[in-house]
Amino acid sequence: MASILRSACNFSVFLGKFVFSMLESLVFTAVPRRRKNVAGEIVLITGAGSGLGRLLALKFARLGSVLVLWDINKEGNEETLRLAREAGAAQVHAYTCDCSRKEEVYRVADQVKKEVGDVSILINNAGIVTGKKFLSCPDGLMEKSFDVNFKAHLWTYKAFLPAMLAENHGHLVCISSAAGLVGINGLADYCASKFAAFGFAESVLVELFGQKKGGIKTTIVCPFFINTGMFDGCSTGFPLLLPILEPEYAANKIVDAILQEQVYLYMPRFLYIVMILKSLLPTKTAQLVLEYMGGLNLMDHFVGQKKIN
Ligand SMILES: NC(=O)c1ccc[n+]([C@@H]2O[C@H](COP(=O)([O-])OP(=O)(O)OC[C@H]3O[C@@H](n4cnc5c(N)ncnc54)[C@H](O)[C@@H]3O)[C@@H](O)[C@H]2O)c1
Predict the structure, then answer these.
(1) Ligand 1 within 6 A of 175 CB?
(2) Residue 161 phi/psi, 5° resolution?
(3) Rounded to whole angstroms, what are the CA distances from 122 to 99, 126, 169, 294?
(4) Annotated catalytic sites, by residue?
(5) Residue 259 Cα to ligand 1 middle (Å)
(6) Distances (CA, A) of 154 to 2, 50, 180, 308
């Protein structure tokens, strides 16, 4: 009898929380959440030396955050530092760091902790793309994709999460990709690394939920092509539904998602429909849709970055 009562009680509590969370989510679909204040927060951005990373740095500079910029490209990173100061950043620190090297990540992370303090918003943004078909991609380049696009996230979390846990305060941001949601022709190693980054960030999110560390937020970002140069030469077969995104637009959406503590951000919105179709449609039908939408030829004219670090 007691165990039936306990089960009924547990179920009622679960039901109450379930209904509340559904209502809360419905309300926040209609009324945007209040944006959190990030002034004074220590924001670390990897790959801050160009593209999206630079734009994110400038936006957090305007929001009054303390900036820690990491990039393998010293020159690009110094330029971001200069622009961030111009944008009004009170404190900016640039560090040259090859995020693909675990020991280097740990060493520079220790330096940041000593010189700046505990990072409270960690944005894993550094990324590379090889853009080669699987069998013509040299092993070393495939390994590099994993080292930069995924494994660097492990080492940065290891370095900065403990302090966030101690304070039950922080935000972990994973810049994955649409290629972290669906497999793409000619992007096997990139897709695999971005799926890994997504899965890792989502697993830690669940781990934090299990540990009742609700003060540490997660945002996982999956954009389609952005016009930063990384995917130069690539095209979209369906610009109406899957347009190539402007960097400024993408950076604004990412900052908004962080400030509103949104967990998943897929850009453009049509990617949410893609995910539903992927789950519901028979595989052969889904592949026909992909082919019809030009999804097999996205990488045909890839030029990409001039140099892969
Ligand atoms: N551009 C797109 O179409 C697109 C689409 C989806 C996701 N993304 C992701 O967005 C992120 C930013 O890309 P972007 O478009 O700004 O490209 P980008 O090439 O302009 O920026 C990437 C930055 O990462 C840095 N970097 C590369 N290897 C590094 C290493 N080992 N250590 C430290 N820094 C390193 C580069 O120097 C560069 O500054 C990447 O993770 C990318 O995969 C980009």
Answers:
(1) yes
(2) -65, -40
(3) 13, 12, 12, 35
(4) 190
(5) 22
(6) 45, 22, 17, 21
Q: Is the CB of 125 under 6 A from ligand 1?
A: yes
Domain boundaries, the chain: 35-292
Per-residue pLDDT of the chain in tens (309 residues, 90 and over written 9)? 788 888 888 889 888 988 888 888 888 878 878 899 999 999 999 999 999 999 999 999 999 999 999 999 999 999 999 999 999 998 999 999 999 999 999 999 999 999 999 999 999 999 999 999 999 999 999 999 999 999 999 999 999 999 999 999 999 999 999 999 999 999 999 999 999 999 999 999 999 999 999 999 999 999 999 999 999 999 998 899 999 999 999 999 999 999 999 999 999 999 999 999 999 999 999 999 999 988 899 999 999 875 444
How many angstroms is it from 12 CA to the middle of ligand 1? 47
**Minimal-distance CA residue to ligand 1 atom 25:** 47
Query: Residue of the nearest CA to atom 23 in ligand 1?
Result: 47
User: Which residues are registered as beta bridge partners of 71?
Assistant: 96
CB of residue 128 inside a 6 A radius of ligand 1: yes
User: How many angstroms separate the alpha carbon of residue 230 from the centre of ligand 1?
Assistant: 7
d(CA 112, CA 171): 17
Q: What CATH number labels 35-292?
A: 3.40.50.720
How far from 156 is each of 87, 115, 160, 174, CA to CA, in Å? Answer: 27, 17, 6, 11
Residue 177, ligand 1, Cβ within 6 A: yes
